[in-house]
Amino acid sequence: MKRTSAEEHVNRIEALRKEMITAGTDYYYVPGGDFHMSEYVCDHFKCREFLSGFDGSNGEMIVSSEGAYLWTDGRYFIQAAEQLEGTGIELMKMGEPGVPKISDFLKTHMENGQTLGFDGRCVSGGAFDRLKEALEGKAIVYKTEDDLVGNIWNDRPELPDGKAWILENRYTNLTRAEKLSLVRTEMDKAGCDVLVVASLDDIAWLYGFRGSDIEYNPVTLSYTVVTRKEAVLYMEPSKAEDIRTALERDGVVIKRYEDIFDDLKAMDAGHRVWTDKERINVKVLDSIPSDAKRILRWSPTFTLKGVKTETEVEHERSAHITDGAALTKIICYLKSLHETDELNEGKVTELDIASKLLGYRQEAEDFIEESFAPIIAAGPHGAIIHYEPDESTNAALRDNDLVLMDTGGQYLRGTTDVTRTVVIGEPTEKMKRLYTAVLKGNIALSSAVFRKGTSGRRLDILARKPLWELGLDYNHGTGHGVGFLLNVHEGPQNISSGPSGMGDTPFVPGMITSDEPGVYLEGEFGIRTENMIVCIPKESTDFGDFYGFEVLTLVPFDRDLIDTEMLTEEEIGIIDDYHRCVYEELCIFMDEKERKWLAETTRPLIDF
Amino acid sequence: MKRTSAEEHVNRIEALRKEMITAGTDYYYVPGGDFHMSEYVCDHFKCREFLSGFDGSNGEMIVSSEGAYLWTDGRYFIQAAEQLEGTGIELMKMGEPGVPKISDFLKTHMENGQTLGFDGRCVSGGAFDRLKEALEGKAIVYKTEDDLVGNIWNDRPELPDGKAWILENRYTNLTRAEKLSLVRTEMDKAGCDVLVVASLDDIAWLYGFRGSDIEYNPVTLSYTVVTRKEAVLYMEPSKAEDIRTALERDGVVIKRYEDIFDDLKAMDAGHRVWTDKERINVKVLDSIPSDAKRILRWSPTFTLKGVKTETEVEHERSAHITDGAALTKIICYLKSLHETDELNEGKVTELDIASKLLGYRQEAEDFIEESFAPIIAAGPHGAIIHYEPDESTNAALRDNDLVLMDTGGQYLRGTTDVTRTVVIGEPTEKMKRLYTAVLKGNIALSSAVFRKGTSGRRLDILARKPLWELGLDYNHGTGHGVGFLLNVHEGPQNISSGPSGMGDTPFVPGMITSDEPGVYLEGEFGIRTENMIVCIPKESTDFGDFYGFEVLTLVPFDRDLIDTEMLTEEEIGIIDDYHRCVYEELCIFMDEKERKWLAETTRPLIDF
Fold this sequence. Notes:
The structure is a homodimer. By secondary structure, chain A is an alpha+beta fold. In chain A, α5 (125-134) links the parallel β5 (115-117) and β6. In chain A, α4 packs parallel to α5 (125-134), α14 packs across α16 (350-362) and α17 packs antiparallel against α18. The longest helix of chain A has 27 residues, at 310-336. The A-B interface holds A 448-451, 454, 457-462, 464-465, 468-469, 471-473, 497, 539-541, 543-544, 546, 568-570 and B 448-451, 454, 457-462, 464-465, 468-469, 471-473, 497, 539-541, 543-544, 546, 568-570.
């Protein structure tokens, strides 16, 4: 989207207010999501950005006759302040003292009997419930069918029209029919006969297709309803052209995207309907007849999808070799920049590295796209956890500085997500101490053995412990689930102590997550070391079944940043074994110079 | 209680059935607790034991016209089977496949409109809610006021009449008035104006008294109701004689134990009443007028009590020196038994050791009683987690075998709880491997540094990790809160992954818990190493406040059982530091022979 003037945003807010008067709406809520509660959304859904000019990944607005307010989190305070300047929109800094949450703000400001409007397709049932709960006793009128920003957005981007395509079964070895059968078994167990799903990655998983509606996420805008006998996929026919035959062969009926609302409304009485209210929009939820019994919890597609098949894991291993080679080449290149004129003259930028890395990734035949916007963060940029370089921030790399690279790719063989932090030239002792502490946390988690039933919430401390011992920490989770050629963030498991509930999911073999402790010193540098790991069985004894992890990622750690004095013998052994494996798998992808460097950098940490 | 014949128990069940007919009760529920949901109960409350003859610490019964059933857990399957023989009572093995929970049993067996009776004073509000929920839709009639076992129990022990006594403020440095003020502040925050508490240790804590109604737990049967202006202690006047003056001086009103029911019923309309439904009996709960708003969660007395004052911690340190000396003397004695005739002839038994240890503890002037029934478990007995030797099980110690000792004392200076496992003579390699793994877990937890906000649920894994790596585990929590001259088990914090919710309580400085990993090999031996630890502040950095633990317990680990090959340098340093401290604090309590041995056993693990 082009940058627009502050004045234009003032005009847009005014235009919205006129729409609000016409609609009889006192407060209008502009959430950040799409119809599917997706983490990434396509341009059509960027109403908040259209209205405010603020283009961070997290932001929601409230507009009333008197004011316009935008909530975003700490990552974006500076950027939002800049982008909102002159628009009259007040920045609400989430989490800061005295700054109310949206629901509390509305509770304070709205008067009895006033009307709150929003586009119910962009708000989850769970979020709406929490809003209503906060405003309980205020007799608020809710208008959930008004897309007022849509009314004033003349050149609004259309919904995307990417074609869905079949992911061959050889990549997963779990057929559409088998997956439907697994889902129906879960439905039987839960005593429900209708399942409604809006999560795009769940739907792509279930029916074995992929799409291209959303950047980085190979999914297609769609809903599905599964009953004991039927499976209906709601997707625009033009987009479903290439998957129709295969799906129909398995008895899946394809209907128009918008048909779900009328179909749900026409449901017979007495059904027991399973849906996840955090992952379904209000309009879908309201279309389910009120006499239906609702079973509101994680969809079986959500939980089943999280456990990869052996074939998927095998392909992930292969994808990580290709992907690891690309990043390893970049690291070799970065190392070679030390004391060069090119570097000293500021001619190598973050975006250069991103572009070069993408080029290496694209050499793989089955590479599709990046799995998220690449984070190449030089020096102090590394301390900004979600920093993404763009033309306005793009910094030149400097000698004797750290570069944090968090990137990933989508391959037919799976999704990758890897972070390495490297030093160009000579690190300081402080850099080494912190890097080594982060690395200790990373390998403590990946080498853990744990009893069946253990959740990520319990494992999280293993990655933090070496940092806590130095009075350090990181304000993000330790690990998130990763899809198979799907979203780079998925559930149902994660490794964190956060409130989402996903941290309570016990690990089972086949679950893939990231392992990414870090430490961030504002204004100085950031360090993060991220591998993808897959849960595997370890041993069964009289005391139970024990699981562990296998590291999928294959990229060397930066030995220049490792302080071996801080490592135990066991830790040194783990790193040496890993490096041996990295060399063996990647050496054939390296040219002569790269191979020489790789051999050198992956040799045992302590020379005898 | 004397052992009675099976026939007598048949008669008692029959007598109960006659009472049930008179009362119009189809099913009668005999829970295991007292009026205060205490973990330990006095003889007056042992209805289940009176009825069945089974005297394990956990057991509940259901009696109907057709059958009588007793539920207990795995610790007691063998004992219960023996004690129930010939009584016609069916043993329900909790947790075994196909064995229903009491609520599910009632759901299956009870018919619409039937009556379930029990003594509502012995069932918590929470337990009753769960029962009603399970039986929902069955139109069951509940009779909660019938103590039918009481009707047939002729020589029932009276309620105890131990006198309460004042614990001088110098032991706690937090006065009654200060505690009442803290409680009222929490009440204000919660927006409630009446607090009802039945937990005996909470009440003793709040009013700064101790009692002697229950063995091992220095508490007195009582309830309390606190309002913004008033504080009423419900306790029999004869028991309150020695505390009346002090309490009245602080405005506390003392009324008869039974008066609480009428007082609550007479409450004005519109109060907001705070009580913890898991820790209050049904009769008290039902006495609160139905128009009162109920706030059902942990009482502020429960949470405040869990954080010890600096003075209490200082006294605990002192108590642990005295207590540690007693146990250390016993260990020295056990070590001296190797290859003696006394040992070889089977002349030293578990009960001998318990008695000798009690003797040493009694040498302390302020020793009051043991804090729980001592566990002295030789050889295979060590694998029975809650083994307590009695005349029927008492085993002789054997050479080259392990002895597990889990004991504790009540002192004016606080409560202790310590476990040491020692070998008499030569251990096997297996014993050493397992002992060292348990020890690694113990010190990993006690030496942990963690960020403010960290709960025991997250810390638990630190103690298990070294065991999990060997395919071992223990089926109990890692740590429980410990009272200050109160119950050896208390909340609100603990270190476990269990469902109680206490594991989610963040640690704050002043919280005391145990640290007790173990491993149990049925038929062979058991190992447990338990220290008491207190949470202390460590450092504050830009990344937050960090806490850790100080070890209170001072008793040497058994160096004969430590395999130094399995330890890191850091672990060896921790053990050596601890042993140095043990020697310094305890040597003055040792006689010459003991001192020589203590110096030897606490010297650095690796000789140079």
